[in-house]
Structures are given as C-alpha cells and as structure tokens.
Amino acid sequence: MRGVSIVGIGSTPFGVLEDQSLKSMAVTAANEAIGDAGVDPKEIEALYVGNFISGFLAGQATIAPQIADLLGLKKEIACTSVEGACCSGGIALRHGYFLVASGMAERVLVVGVEKMTHAPTAKNTEGLALAMDHETSEGKSGLTFPGFFALVAQRHMHEFGTTPEHLARVAFKNRRNGARNSFARFREEVSLEDITNSRAISDPLRLFDCCPIADGASAVLLCPTEQAGKFTDAPVEIVGSAQTTGYNSLYNTPSSTTLDATVLAGRQAFEMAGIGPEEVDVVELHDCFTIAEIVDGEDLGFFEKGQGGFAVAEGLTQVDGKIPINPSGGLLSKGHPVGATGVGQVYEVVKQLRGSHENQVTDAKIGLTHNLGATGQVCTVHILRRV
Amino acid sequence: MRGVSIVGIGSTPFGVLEDQSLKSMAVTAANEAIGDAGVDPKEIEALYVGNFISGFLAGQATIAPQIADLLGLKKEIACTSVEGACCSGGIALRHGYFLVASGMAERVLVVGVEKMTHAPTAKNTEGLALAMDHETSEGKSGLTFPGFFALVAQRHMHEFGTTPEHLARVAFKNRRNGARNSFARFREEVSLEDITNSRAISDPLRLFDCCPIADGASAVLLCPTEQAGKFTDAPVEIVGSAQTTGYNSLYNTPSSTTLDATVLAGRQAFEMAGIGPEEVDVVELHDCFTIAEIVDGEDLGFFEKGQGGFAVAEGLTQVDGKIPINPSGGLLSKGHPVGATGVGQVYEVVKQLRGSHENQVTDAKIGLTHNLGATGQVCTVHILRRV
After folding, report:
1. CA-CA distance, B335 to B212, in Å (whole number)?
2. In angstroms, how far is the first alpha carbon of chain B from the final one?
3. What is the pTM of this model?
4. Catalytic status, residue A336
5. Window A:231-250, CB contacts with B under 8 Å
6. Which domains does chain B have, with CATH numbers?
7. Residue of chain A whose alpha carbon sits nearest to that of B82
8. From residue A97, how far is each of A48, A206, B62, B64 by CA, in Å?
9. ipTM greater than 0.95, yes or no?
10. What is the pLDDT of residues B173-184, one digit of tens each?
C-alpha cells in the first residue's frame, strides 16, 4: 500500500443547471480536474463514476464509458459506474484510491454526477426512495427518507433531550455557510425564526431541515503521493479510507439513534490515519437532514452520543468553532446531487486544505469527509491531509 | 499480484422466476456459492454485485448492502454495486478479482442479478435502451439494440458475405445447447426452418436471432490460489482479466463490424494469461444477437475477421467442434438477465472446467468468458484455468 494524493479537483456549482446535461456536467468537472493537475488525459488509467439513478431520472444509464469517450480517455482502460445511493460518490473515490494504493494504476480519475432538477418532485421522491429496502416493511409501507430521518429525530429527542431548536441551529449554520460558497444552491441566510416557522414535512422535520435536490458534478484526480509534486504545489494525501455496510431497515438496527455504518467507517479511517477526531480541522459530513448532521457528528466521534445538538447550539461546529462542520453549506445549503455529493465533499475539503476556500477554516491541515447511503446501508469516510 | 481462484459457484436457473424477487435470487445464488466453497459468511471481506437496472425495472436500487445484510455478512466490509449495462456481471467479477489479486482481501463474493420478466415488454425495451447514448443521434433517434445489431449484421454481410443462414446456424446451435442445460430459459431445439421463417424484428435479424430477457442470479466466491485447496478439490484460477472501454455510438466507431472494446480486452487477457486463442477449450461469449456471436468470435481472435459466420456453418463452434462456443446455450437460449449474465458465464465455464457440465466439452482445461455492455461501450474478458 502506497500513499495516494489528490492532485486535481474540479466541480460545477450545485444547483439548478438547466442548460447542462448529466454528461456535460461530468465532462466539465472532469476536465477541470484534469486541467488542475495538468495531466494528459491519455495518461489516465481508470475512471470511476459515482452515480445513483441517472437511468431512472435522466434517461441515461452506463455513463462511465460514455463520459470516458467524451473525455478522450484511452480505450484500453476500465471505466466503471458504482452505485450506493447517496454514497455513490464516496464509493467511487474509495475505488480510485484502492487502484492507486495497490500499485495497479498511476493516474485515476473519479467523478460524481447527478441530474435531478429537470424531473418533477414526485419523480425525484420516487427515485430517491428506490434506495430503501422495498422487500421489508419500510419501503413497502411508503416510508420515504424524510419519514425515516424524522423517526431518528424523534428517538434522538426522546433519549437525549435534543430540541427542535437544535435542529434549526444546524440549518441556520449551514445556510449561513452556503451563503459564502458560490458553489452552493442556496446562497441566502435564513433567520432562525423562518426556519422554525417553516412548514412541517415529517414531524419534527420542517422544510429547512431537509436538503434540496440539485444538479451537479465534481471530480478529483489521484496519483501516488511520491509523484504528486509533479502535478501540484499543494497535494492533499488520502490518509484514511473506509467503506462499510449497515442495516437494511430501521426496524432491525440495534439503535435508531446511531448509524452503525458510520461508526465502523469512522473507526477504520481514523485507525488507518493514525489520528483521532480531535486532530481533524474541518469536516464535510452527510447532512441530508439536520438530524443527520447531529447523529453523524456523534457517530464519527466528534461528540458524545446525545451531545450533537447541544454542540451545534454552543457554536462548536461553526466555521470558527472547535470542529467546523460543513463550511460548504453541506447538503442542506449546497444541495444534494446524489451521485456527486461524496466527490463534492472532497472537492470542498481539498480547497480548505489548499487554503483557498471562500469560507475558509483558518489553517486547516486535516479534513474528513463522510458520505452516507440510503438508511445508513452504506458509508464511506475519507481523511485528507495537506502534504 | 497473486493468483486468484474461484472456489465456490452458485446460480438460479435463468428464466421466468415468478416466485422469486431480485434479492431472493441473489441470496439463493450467493448462499449456494458460499456453501459450495464451505466458507463462513463472516470471513467474506467484500461483496460486488453486478446489476444493470434494478431501480428502473424492479423498483429497488442500492442492492449490494441489502444483499449483504440478508446474507449476514460483516458490517465492517465494503459491499458495492457496479453497473456497465449488459457487462455489469463481468465488471463485478473483475473488481472481486482485483481485490484478491492485490492482496487487499482474502475472500470476496461476486454476485450478478437481474429481475426482468415481471415487467411489460415495453418497459424492458425502454430499460435496456437506457444504456445507449441518448445525447447523440442514436439513442435520440429511437435506435434500440436490435436495430443496432441489425446495422452491424447488414455491414458484416456486405463486407464479408455472411448470410442469413449463418445467423440462423448460431441460433440453431445455441438452441440445441440450451436444450441440454437445465439452467437455460429455452429448453427446446428449434429447426433451421423455424428459425429462418420466424418473424422479422430488425432486418436481417429475426425473432430467433435475439436473446430473451430473463430473471436470474449467479455468484462466485474468490480466494487466493495458494489457499484454494482448503475449500475445493477443483479450484479454477483466473489467469486473465481485462476490462476496456468502447465508443458511445456506432457512427463514430472506426468500423461497424468490429467492437474495439472486445479486441482490446481479449488482447489484454490473453497477454496476461500467456496463451493464445488456440489454447482455449471452451468459450462463453456475449451472443445477445446471433450476429454478436459471430463478431465476438472474430474480435477475440478465434476466427479471422469475416470468417465467423462460415465457422459456425462448418460446425467449428459446436460442443464437439474445434472451439466450442456457448455450450450453455448462450444468451440466446439460456437467457439474458442483464446484470447476472457475466457471472453466469463464469458459472458455466467453471462447471465445464470441473467436468460437471450437462453439456460437457471433453476434457476442458481452459475457458474464456466475454461480457459486453451496451453498444460495445464496455467489455470484460476473463480466462479461467483448471488448477
């Protein structure tokens, strides 16, 4: 196992990109990453594309080889689409990492992409819900993701005293962060009052507790750390990488306030990196709902179980707080183009570690990304370090 | 890079499996492979699932972690769905192979699965066509796969003198083979006359020139070759493995009678195995249409370009011929549960190399599987050898 570094990054903004197709977004992000690294596309030895549901939503499947063809990559290489619901992007990165770490490839391109906003809301809701387990009670009974995370929130409030205001504080912070990130879908701050008065979606979750769909693509280019200096003055090394599996349904999980896949992935990634949560300077984690940010922060070890809501209320997760979480605005403000999200998080953290983020965390050296799929069925965690 | 062997195989029959769900088929095949190897499920270190379109057709996405949960695999491991249209199964195998070959895992489970026959024909046609490139002329203009391969056939006939009878001979052979394989969807021989008189689908392709959709799942269990003896008396080593990329559309390929991704994948796999086509004893290749079997056989180097049709007519590809192709019945008779096909081919070849196939090729020692996605956009070739 050799060191792997990110030497190129690229991204479209996340939002309503009416003029861009699924593939044009992927090509834009990929070409930016390739250009950022200054790599000849013919040197790329593999492509991974993270995508959840382009066939269902955008009428286009099998996009990895199609994107490769548009980029002019070599035909001798493997170009693979991976799917793990909202974790698809993280899985793509994990596979690119593996290929370079194992010595099987020298230059690997990783892209995450999703096109969603052209489709009606009902179609998006149906599409997203395809990731639930439809053979057991939950999917069959019509439970969708807002309902799932509302159940998690209800239990978290019951067990730990988390309040609706704690949830609102997450949305408030991430809206404020998003306002400072030109890649975010939502660029306006929202008052706590507007958040707590917004319409109910699934009690206790209100409109601002839920992340928006979006169009978008992000890309990174990987190479062995020992070669990174050839491509960039600011390489970022992947020092921890983990992918784990969770339970199919809430009803058979040991606890409904912990997502085990996150706990296991965090533990593996920290062990691999040889550091603990206290050494992390900046985090982009999977805040598909406000309660998810609270649960994720606890499951990753940044806070004791049950303390996540209180930590937000104390300001600990602000960009100038003890452990800045989602300075990008997170899924809640930046938006959630499902397959792109996991790579987009890495794009954001690399910018932080390069010191060039619009909402910069002072002197960030170590960052963590956490990407979660479906009802916690699949999770990736990556730890990144400025070289 | 260390040697990787297949020590367990399992499969459902391919066909109309009304009583089985997508996941129940996957679990059946996987448990059979696990049992065949005698491996403790808790020892499995990764799962790859090849699936094309379960979200669109079967209303269930994100199936890799869900199958893992049903199988009782460990939560610490990565369970990943890969998609490359009709090549999804081959891509899954390729990734399992990589993980073991690189030393990153000791036991890896690979599953291919698709559920199709419950859905109306129009929905299946629409679903399959999602793999075409819909941003250029072909997908947009309404071209589907029978039309694509009819164009290939027309050009092949024009350039090389391939005849409708050559095509019919492929169907005739594969129907006869399928009649001897209890895992095949179609179990009855069909006369040449019935084949050539069957209704036109897309000139020159007739009904029997086209493979049927099917439900089905297949699975294999991989471990390092040096440990294979612990699990089986008849290990089969993967001595060649390749995955390549083709062109998005027929109109921009250098030739419409050659699928370059196949040529490149075959070349890579043979080079890795250190053998040539003449040393292969049995082949399962991607005969989605009769013309595809002819083109694939040429592209893999079993026949000169243009000679594939004549070779079939001479009986060279029969089970007792010089190079037996698709003794399983192939996609044409066994059926094509899209995501399962690539793993199903390996299931068939392993049975051949174990000497236990119902349509056994005498003393088969080396086998080859060829799995093709979309309009030749992605291809895998694996070469297997009896240890």
Report:
1. 5
2. 17
3. 0.98
4. yes
5. 243-248
6. 4-120+214-235 (3.40.47.10), 136-210+238-386 (3.40.47.10)
7. A82
8. 10, 38, 21, 20
9. yes
10. 999 999 999 999
